[in-house]
Design brief:
mainly alpha, Arc Repressor Mutant, subunit A, three-stranded antiparallel sheet
């Protein structure tokens, strides 16, 4: 125990901190709820906002890495969620781009548009 905090609570706090750094934390998902997407899509968008390029493998690990191997879907299934994110962003004239054989990205201007949309609906 660390000053009354259990080791488990310390680990939970660290996970929450790391998820926040990735753009997949609870606060990030709450902010991205304005887009009305499923949680997995919001995680992908959160990753896109925090990184220059999101590699398919990295997104897969963030989304499915906590599941037992037998319960992890095929990586190809991620394409459906990326397509959903792309469609939702198009409604706001934001383009999710693909860098061939690397991953997906948003331009700085499109990230600014998203952040403006998120900020516009904050209470």
């Amino acid at each position: 125990m660390h000053g009354g905090i259990s080791e488990i609570q310390c680990l939970r706090d660290r996970i929450e901190e790391l998820e926040g750094l990735l753009g997949a934390g609870k606060e990030d998902l709450d902010r991205l709820a304005v887009f009305g997407m499923p949680a997995i899509c919001s995680v992908i968008l959160g990753l896109l906002l925090k990184r220059v390029v999101v590699r398919r493998e990295a997104a897969y690990v963030v989304i499915y890495g906590n599941r037992p191997e037998a319960e992890q879907p095929q990586i190809k299934g991620l394409d459906v969620y990326v397509w959903r994110v792309r469609q939702r962003l198009r409604l706001h004239q934001i383009e999710l781009k693909t860098q061939f054989r690397v991953g997906w990205y948003l331009t700085p201007d499109d990230k600014a548009k998203i952040n403006a949309l998120i900020g516009a609906v904050r209470p």
